[in-house]
Design brief:
The structure holds six protein chains of six kinds. Chain A is mainly alpha-helical. Chain A has three helices and no strands. In chain B, strands 1-3-2 form a three-stranded antiparallel sheet, covered by helices on one side. The chains are: A mainly alpha, B alpha+beta, C mainly alpha, D mainly alpha, E mainly alpha, F mainly alpha. At the C-D interface, helix 2 and helix 3 of C face helix 6, helix 7, helix 10 and helix 18 of D. The structure holds sodium ion (NA) (2 copies). The site of one sodium ion has 5 residues of chain F, from helix 20.
Chain lengths: 113, 112, 126, 488, 91, 909
């Protein structure tokens, strides 16, 4: 059991680190978001499961709820941020044709000064 | 199959698909991020929605977004199209088809 | 560790003070908020804490043993909330100032002291 | 009434009143009634506490929550706290009466009553508490309530003044907070007696030196002492009259009280870790007196003029503290009592002058001697008292400070006080002459409200009473100094 | 120190590196969206810290914090997204 | 004696009310009161002859050194007689003089005069120096009110203020002197001070004491360079001038000098200064008296000259000088008051001011003319009037004293001028220049002529039969001043003496002056150097300069630039800490080095990096986010150092700050162009870093000191046992230190009131702007998230006593729930969802928190003593702390929402 817990924790942490590297390396905000929210979620979840396996002091309920809340909030937050990113006119890399053009108002200049 | 049972089945299937997608796509992201010559081909694609209930549409968008590599950018005001940002794809049609078969179908079973 | 925390707390305070000295009222406001944060680190050190245990009595125990100083945590908690209230209150004021002066530059927001030049007044004119 | 109840009332009553006023805020009349009733009860309760605390039979301290001494927050029924509480109540009562004419339904609905009561409760809390962190909390409460009162009309000058005030006060609050926490970190206690004990037993170290400097700076700012006074003349004058009167009476004195408590009570002025700061006190006091009396002389706007006088007076108190003698501390306490009443009264008077002549500017006021002789008489009391003319309270206050300077071997400080006194006479007599004596140069000539005159009569009467029987107050002030010094 | 605690201490260093990376993005931007994406990343890292601290101390109280953190930071993200959308129309 | 003083005070307040009822005769009736006092004093004469009597030393303010000890000796007695006697005449005269004034004004005048009379009596009777000071200042204030009695006139007000400011300056000097004497001797007794004069002079304060006393006396008695207020003070109604500014008040300076003669004589420069000043004053006043155009102003300058003579006499040593001083004091009071009465009558009758415009008034004012002649002869020192005797003594005193010839010469000249002035003011208005005045507005009345006649005749009778006055008043007075009995013999005829010769010279010169008055007068007037040299202008110029300096200084300090204000505070703080550290002369100790835990160290460094980034950020949003990063990192730091409650609270606060500040940033420009140049930024950074370094030193030293807290140990032990809570921090917050929390709760409540007052938008009750368009996913799920957050907040509240959480953070989380609603559906919807006004929530919460401590009071325990109820079984234990925490929760929730809704509404406008 301990080995499983340790493995899950290492994997989770690794995913978190990868996600963080993605946030640094990926070229535009929308791409970084994929890395941050999804890989981050998975990493957190794995880490928490590992902790729960290791710890039998009654943290299970809280741990699972913790995972649930992460799963609930991060994607919704990501969607909102994604749209806001688009709308606020941030430059996006590699998007050739934009089907949203005409569907959503987009700032011509980025909001960032 | 009775409606409740169908829903339960749909729920289980969705969870399974979702977990698999989460792990698989996270690994994809990891691969992309860690590759020395990091190359992505991001796209914004339009996914037509066959669902009608707002909750169902929201769930669809949620699943699309929860899967690494894709995020729902916008739901059209008439709720017929989903605009999805995809981190790395070469084939729009295949991606759309995957969304519809993986998620939309089972969400329809679950909620419609 | 203690020295590091002290340095970091003091450093945050220094940065905050630097921001407070700006003429942009929102920067000043952010600086004051940051000041409270930096101060809290310094406060934390007043507890001489080296334990990572929470100040919560474990199930079954009747007293806290080997825990950190709970008193200083209670004080910091109070300080955090008060700092928050003050920050937000200042935000409200800045927003009102912006509404009336259309500027957040402290040089433009000076109506309180803008009483015109003191009237020249002859002491013999009574 | 049990002693424990008596001790909590000066704080609990205003807070309960504030809560009720908040509930009733939409009904201006009911809010007014709440304010007045609470203030009247507060006055009675404060007097009762004062009488009980000074009747010879010692009144035990109360620790809230029923915890042993030192393990909870306590209120001590000792001087000078119990002396200041009734003074606060009298000023509050007078301003509440004055407010009947000055504070209309709009301001009431904006929370005037709740804010004032909260502030008074905070001031009383600061005067009574035995706990340094608790002191900090009361300062914050008083600050926020003051900001609320300052901006009650939402005028842009008020907003600006409030920003200036708030920026300074938040800086001060942080310094104070760190200072208090350091006292805790050094001594392991926040209770003034134990902290004083701990400081008395240990040599000065760097932490104590820094903590003392932080507390000094923070409370110097709160007291409006030079050079940290700049916020006060930048903000006080924007407040409505009644509010400015409460501020002038209470807020800076609250700050100065904290200086007394910390530098006499905790550190012990002549040593215990803060001795190296004491020489600065005299410089601060002298600079405050001179800079602020100059500020007053430069003004013709009554509110700004009085705002400067408010600080100049704190300079006298600081002079008392600077002497680091028991007599000096007693002088400071005496001066506080005098100043709280007189400053509030002056602002009330200024408000009535404005009401009658339509201007805050002294070059446009006048004629009140003829139109409102009673007012001219009532107003002369605080004017002469501030100017230090006998037999009003200010004469004794000033005399005691100068005498203490001589006895304390700092005659130069007494000389500065004397010189400031001269300029105060010039300023105040011109003020009275401009307001009451000279002909009115304005078209507006409104009658003065009775409530305003009643309020002033209350305060002027107190000033005269102190002036005619100063020995009684002096005895209390001496006992206060003894109590404070006994802490360390 | 048990083996798991040693592991946790090591993992916390990796988490710290992730934190530094996310913080770097937060400080550098360049767009506002980037900074908030970094906040989401930070949320995940903070929950991770809560988890390893639980192991390090053997006290589950720290997990409570992670629980609330997800919800709390969601509100910040939402507020910021709404801000960006509303802000676009104004200079 | 005390009774007399008290009676006088009460009478001053009550007796003038007669004037409200009685019209013309009021003066005569009221005058009975001072006359009665006069009689009372006269009846005490036998006692005074035997020595002096001490009044009752009432316990007044003994701790302050002030007691109500009075002392009536010969010198005081003389003053008392003058004050009450002349006071009675003044009131009689005023009754006739003030016929034009309304009853209110006359009442006011009589009140002021009687109050002044009381103050005078008090001053001369006071044995305690502080008591003397009290009355001394009272005379200044009353003089101020009387000079400015006609407040409509700007000249009056100006003169009054000038008089007050000069005499109050003197008063302060007297205060200084008294306090220094008290410091040196340990007592405020005047008698002791005089007895121990040499001790005073020998003390380090000796010179200062003498200087202060001299200045006080010179201001009051209008000596150079403070003489200028007196002629200006003639703006007072003439009866007041007669009383205050010639007969009584201005002599208080002389009184003081005479009392303290032993003191100032003990310092080497004492007598010289007094005599020098006296001579300067006499000369200057003499010239000005000749230049004076008006009746009253000529009298005023002659008064100044007379005061100079008195000062000179005090300054001279030897018993004769004292005799001369006492005699001249009496004589001058009588004849000068009479002359003022005459001047007043002329003014009253003609309304004319200038001496040159008058003439031939003897036809209209015959009795006044008679009185004027009598008084003038006395002033001129013509035998057999009393003035002659006093002048003889003057010359004798000078000849006998050890002084050189200069003062004598000056005295001769001045006395000649006095003769001249006396002649001019008698001859010109009354007897010369017939036809200049054809008619008068008012004729003579008994009230107007009786007082001057009485005084003029008294001057004559006293000199003809000086025995009574010498015995009753003069001899005791001289004895009191000189310190031992002196044989005083007043005689009109001494035989041919040097003094008589000098008198002859004086009268002769005086006659010449009378003859050539007009040319001399015009010639002197042409020389305007006297105007430019007038100290009056110097005084006003210095006032002006002072106000100019004040204004410049204030402009320099209070410049209005908030940045520089705050820089003063920050730099001042650094300076204070540096001073304190350097003054204590200690170096910070270093704590034991512990192994660095890498992860927490990195996290904390990220916090610092965030702060640095915030300080350097060029956009406000960037600054907000990076400052938030610091908060976030610090929260994780708390988490990793055993402070879960702090972490939770810090996280919640950071999130809320983002929510609230984004609302603010919606409205204001995000770009934050530099507002300071590079040099300013460098300086700011240096100062800020300085504060940081000093703080660091203090904190490090504190941690090196180690320490433990008895209170913390107690809480750790007792939290569960006595307060039923596992979470010690929460137990401290709600129980051990619940009183702090109560205050903090009020802080938050007040913030809410402030927000409501400032932000309540006008259209808050009507339709609001449409809800923002948000992402579909958010719009669909926000409600669910809100419920989730709300549920979480309740859990946090409920478990707070045992687990991380509690009312504060619960309230914060609950407010986040409604923040979500507001973000997704608009503020109006969120407000509806809340159902109650946030402020009502705040009020209820406050009521709960406050009330939770009340039940304990009923059981006799201190406030906020929490009561617990353990029902047993599966039911949880219940305590009043829960009510308290619930109150906190509600206040926080309501307050944050009030702030949030207000900000969002205002920002969206
Ligand atoms: Na003499
Ligand atoms: Na001689």
């Amino acid at each position: 059991m301990t080995i499983l817990a340790a493995g899950l924790m290492i994997a989770g942490t690794a995913f978190l680190l990868v996600a963080a590297i993605g946030v640094i390396r990926l070229p535009d905000p929308l791409q970084r978001m994929h890395s941050a929210t999804k890989a981050g979620t998975l990493g957190c979840a794995l880490l928490l499961i590992g902790v729960m396996i290791h710890d039998d002091s009654g943290a299970d309920r809280i741990g699972w709820m913790n995972i649930l809340f992460l799963l609930l909030t991060l994607p919704v937050g990501a969607q909102m941020l994604a749209r806001a990113t688009y709308v606020s006119g941030t430059r996006l890399e590699g998007i050739a044709d934009d089907p949203l053009d005409g569907e959503l108002d987009r700032a011509t200049e980025p909001v960032e000064p | 199959m009775t409606a409740p049972l169908r829903r339960i089945r749909a729920g289980i299937v969705l969870t399974g698909i979702f977990l698999w997608d989460l792990v698989a796509a996270s690994c994809d992201v990891a691969r992309i991020v860690l590759s020395p010559r990091m190359r992505t081909s991001p796209r914004i694609v339009v996914v037509p929605i066959a669902l009608t209930r707002p909750a169902a549409i929201a769930l669809f968008a949620y699943f699309v977004s929860l899967t690494p590599g894709s995020t729902c950018l916008h739901v059209s005001r008439d709720r017929t199209r989903l605009f999805v940002h995809i981190l790395d794809t070469d084939d729009d049609a295949a991606t759309i088809a995957r969304f519809k078969s993986h998620f939309e179908r089972w969400i329809a079973e679950l909620l419609e | 560790m203690t020295i590091l925390y002290a340095a970091i707390g003091s450093g945050i305070v220094a940065c905050a003070l630097y921001m407070i000295l700006s003429r942009n009222l929102v920067r000043m406001l952010l600086g004051l908020s940051l000041l409270a944060t930096g101060a809290n680190i310094l406060l934390f050190l007043a507890g001489h804490t080296r334990s990572q245990q929470p100040p919560i009595i474990a199930d079954g125990a009747r007293a806290l043993t080997n825990g950190p100083d709970p008193m200083i945590q209670a004080l910091i908690l109070t300080a955090i909330v008060i700092g928050f209230a003050l920050t937000v209150m200042l935000a409200v004021l800045v927003l009102r100032a912006w509404r009336s002066e259309a500027s957040i530059d402290a040089r433009d927001v000076g109506t309180a002291e803008d009483l015109g030049p003191p009237r020249q007044r002859d002491p013999a004119d009574v | 009434m049990s002693d424990a109840v008596l001790l909590i009332l000066p704080v609990l009553l205003p807070f309960a009143g504030a809560t009720l006023a908040l509930v009733l805020r939409r009904h201006a009349g009911l809010a007014t009634a709440t304010g007045i009733a609470t203030t009247a009860l507060l006055t009675l309760a404060s007097l009762a506490l004062f009488l009980r605390a000074t009747d010879g039979d010692p009144l035990p301290a109360t620790v809230f929550g029923g915890w042993p001494q030192g393990f909870g927050i306590g209120f001590s029924a000792s001087l000078p706290g119990v002396l200041l509480v009734p003074v606060v109540a009298v000023v509050t009562l007078a301003t509440a009466i004055y407010a009947l004419a000055d504070i209309g339904p709009r301001r009431r609905r904006a929370g005037y009553d709740a804010l004032t009561l909260a502030m008074v409760g905070a001031v009383n809390g600061a005067f009574l508490t035995d706990d340094l962190f608790n002191l900090y909390v009361w300062f914050e409460l008083a600050l926020l309530a003051a900001l609320g009162l300052l901006t009650i009309d939402r005028r842009s000058a008020q907003i600006d003044g409030a920003i200036r005030y708030a920026a300074f006060a938040m800086l001060a609050a942080t310094f104070i907070l760190i200072g208090v926490a350091m006292v805790y970190g050094i001594t392991g206690t926040l209770e003034v007696r134990s902290a004083a004990q701990a400081f008395a037993d240990r040599p000065t170290d760097a932490a104590t030196a820094i903590a003392a400097a932080l507390l000094l700076g923070g409370f110097v700012l709160k007291s409006g002492l030079v050079p940290f006074h700049l916020w006060l003349p930048a903000s006080y004058h924007t407040a409505p009259t009644t509010v400015a009167a409460v501020f002038a009476g209470l807020l800076t004195k609250m700050g100065f009280f904290a200086l007394l408590l910390i530098f006499v009570g905790v550190f012990g002025v002549t040593g215990g870790g803060a001795g190296q700061l004491v020489p600065l006190f005299g410089v601060i006091a002298a600079a405050t007196m001179l800079v602020c009396i100059a500020g007053a002389l430069a003004q013709t706007d009554m509110r700004r003029l009085l705002a400067y006088h408010v600080i100049a007076q704190v300079g006298y108190m600081m002079a008392g503290l600077a002497l680091a003698t028991r007599e000096g501390v007693a002088a400071a306490v005496f001066y506080m009592v005098h100043s709280i009443i007189v400053q509030a009264n002056l602002f009330l008077g200024a408000g009535l002058i404005r009401r009658s002549s339509g201007s805050w500017d002294l070059t446009r006021t006048g004629g009140l001697m003829r139109r409102e002789p009673l007012f001219a008489l009532l107003f002369a009391v605080p004017v002469l008292s501030l100017a230090g003319i006998p037999p009003f309270s200010g004469f004794w206050a000033k005399m005691i400070v100068i005498r203490a300077s001589l006895d304390g071997g700092m005659a130069w400080l007494g000389a500065v006080a004397l010189f400031t006194g001269l300029l105060t006479i010039v300023s105040m007599t011109t003020f009275w002459s401009d307001a009451c004596w000279k002909q009115s140069r304005s078209a507006t000539q409104r009658r003065l409200p009775t409530s305003g005159l009643v309020a002033m009569a209350l305060l002027s009467g107190t000033t005269v009473a102190i002036g005619l029987a100063p020995g009684w107050l002096w005895a209390l002030a001496e006992r206060s100094a003894q109590t404070l010094a006994g802490l360390s | 120190m048990t083996g798991m605690q040693t592991l946790s201490a090591g993992l916390s260093v990796i988490l710290a590196i992730a934190l530094v990376l996310a913080a770097w993005r937060m400080v550098r931007g360049p767009s506002f969206a980037d900074r908030f994406i970094a906040l989401d990343m930070l949320t995940a890292v903070a929950v991770g810290f809560a988890a390893v601290t639980t192991v390090l101390t053997g006290r589950s109280e720290f997990l409570d914090i992670g629980l609330s953190l997800a919800l709390i930071n969601f509100v910040a993200t939402a507020a910021f997204a709404v801000f960006l959308e509303l802000r676009k129309g104004r200079k | 004696m005390f009774a007399i003083l008290l009676l006088s005070l009460v009478g001053a307040c009550l007796v003038p009310l007669i004037a409200r009822v009685v019209g013309r005769g009021a003066g005569l009736l009221i005058a009975l009161f001072p006359a009665g006092l006069f009689a009372a004093f006269v009846s005490m004469a036998p006692v005074v002859e035997r020595g002096w009597v001490t009044g009752e030393g009432r316990l007044w303010a003994t701790g302050l050194g002030a007691d109500a000890t009075l002392r009536l000796d010969g010198f005081s007695f003389l003053f008392c007689l003058l004050v009450t006697g002349i006071g009675a005449l003044v009131i009689v005269y005023a009754g006739g003089y003030l016929t034009d004034k309304s009853r209110t004004e006359r009442t006011r005048f009589f009140t002021l005069i009687l109050l002044f009379l009381t103050a005078m009596l008090g001053t001369v009777l006071a044995e305690n120096l502080l008591l003397l000071l009290v009355f001394w200042e009272a005379t200044s204030i009353l003089s101020f009110l009387l000079v400015g009695f006609d407040s409509k006139s700007a000249r009056s007000r100006r003169a009054a203020l000038m008089a007050l400011q000069v005499t109050a300056f003197g008063g302060l000097m007297l205060l200084a002197a008294v306090l220094m004497i008290g410091h040196v001797l340990g007592t405020y007794s005047m008698a002791t001070a005089v007895d121990r004069a040499s001790e005073i002079a020998a003390s380090p304060y000796g010179n200062a004491i003498v200087a202060c006393i001299l200045i006080a006396a010179f201001t009051k008695s209008a000596q150079f360079p403070f003489h200028f207020w007196l002629p200006n003070a003639m703006q007072a109604p003439t009866p007041a001038s007669a009383f205050l500014h010639s007969a009584t008040m201005v002599k208080l300076g002389i009184y003081l000098l005479a009392r303290f003669e032993p003191v100032f004589a003990s310092v080497p420069w004492g007598r010289t200064s007094v005599i020098t000043i006296a001579c300067l004053t006499m000369l200057l006043a003499a010239v000005q008296a000749l230049r004076a155009e008006g009746f009253k102003s000529a009298l005023a300058y002659s008064t100044v000259a007379s005061l100079g003579i008195l000062t000179l006499l005090v300054g001279l040593d030897g018993p004769t000088a004292t005799v001369a001083m006492v005699g001249f004091l009496l004589a001058h009071a009588m004849y000068k008051a009479a002359l003022f009465f005459c001047a007043g009558s002329v003014l009253h009758a003609t309304g004319l001011y200038s001496l040159r415009a008058m003439g031939g008034l003897v036809r209209f004012l015959p009795f006044t003319a008679l009185a004027c002649v009598g008084a003038s002869l006395s002033m001129a020192g013509i035998p057999p009037f009393i003035g002659f005797i006093s002048k003889e003594f003057l010359f004798q005193a000078q000849l006998e004293s050890s002084w050189e010839i200069v003062p004598l010469a000056i005295a001769v000249i001045v006395n000649a001028v006095m003769v001249g002035v006396a002649g001019v003011i008698t001859l010109r208005p009354f007897f010369l220049g017939h036809g200049k005045v054809d008619a008068v507005k008012h004729g003579e009345t008994l009230s107007l002529v009786a007082p001057p006649l009485v005084l003029a005749l008294a001057g004559l009778f006293i000199s003809l039969d000086p025995e009574w006055i010498t015995r009753v008043a003069l001899r005791p007075a001289v004895a009191a001043v000189f310190g031992q009995a002196v044989e005083v013999k007043l005689e009109v005829w001494h035989g041919i003496t040097p003094m008589l010769l000098l008198s002859g010279v004086v009268v002769g010169t005086g006659a010449l002056i009378v003859g050539f008055w007009k040319p001399i007068h015009l010639r002197l007037r042409a020389v305007d150097r006297f105007d430019t040299l007038a100290v009056e202008r110097l005084w006003e110029a210095s006032l002006r300069a002072m106000i100019g300096t004040a204004r410049a200084l204030t402009g320099l300090v209070q410049h209005g630039d908030l940045r520089r204000y705050l820089l003063v505070v920050v730099a001042g703080m650094a300076a204070l800490m540096l001073w304190s550290l350097a003054g204590a002369g200690v170096l910070p100790r270093l704590p034991d080095i512990e192994p660095v835990r890498i992860a927490p160290a990195v996290v904390a460094l990220v916090g610092l990096a965030g702060a640095i980034a915030a300080a350097r950020a060029t956009s406000l949003l960037g600054a907000m986010i990076t400052a938030g990063l610091t908060g976030f990192a610090i929260a994780i730091t708390f988490l990793m150092n055993g402070a879960p409650d702090l972490a939770l609270t810090q996280f919640s606060v950071e999130a809320l700050v983002v929510v609230l500040l984004t609302a603010l940033l919606l409205a204001v420009p995000l770009a934050s162009p530099p507002t300071r140049n590079v040099a300013m930024r460098r300086r700011d950074a240096a100062v800020a870093v300085g504060v940081g370094v000093l703080l660091f030193a203090g904190i490090v030293d504190m941690t090196a000191g180690g320490g433990s807290s008895a209170a913390s140990d107690y809480y750790a032990r007792m939290s569960y046992v006595a307060a039923y809570g596992h979470n010690v921090v929460n137990v401290i917050l709600v129980d051990f230190r619940g009183f702090d929390t109560l205050g903090e709760t009020l802080v938050i409540a007040v913030a809410a009131v402030l927000a409501r007052s400032l932000l309540k938008s006008r259209d808050s009750d009507t339709a609001t702007s449409p809800p923002p368009e948000v992402h579909f996913a958010f719009a669909t799920t926000a409600r669910g998230f809100a419920w989730l957050l709300f549920a979480a907040s309740l859990v946090i509240l409920w478990r707070g006593h045992d687990q991380p959480g509690g009312g504060f953070v619960g309230g914060l989380v609950a407010s986040l729930a409604l923040a979500i609603v507001a973000l997704a559906y608009g503020v109006a919807r969120a407000e509806r969802a809340l159902r109650v006004d946030p402020l009502t929530l705040v009020a209820i919460g406050m009521a709960l928190a406050l009330a939770s401590g009340l039940p304990a009071l009923a059981t006799g325990s201190p406030y906020l003593t929490h009561l617990w109820w353990e029902p047993g079984g599966w039911l949880p234990k219940l305590g009043t702390t829960m009510i308290f925490d619930l109150g906190v929760y509600m206040v926080v929730l309501g307050a944050v929402l009030a702030l949030l809704f207000g900000l969002q509404r205002e920002a969206a406008r």
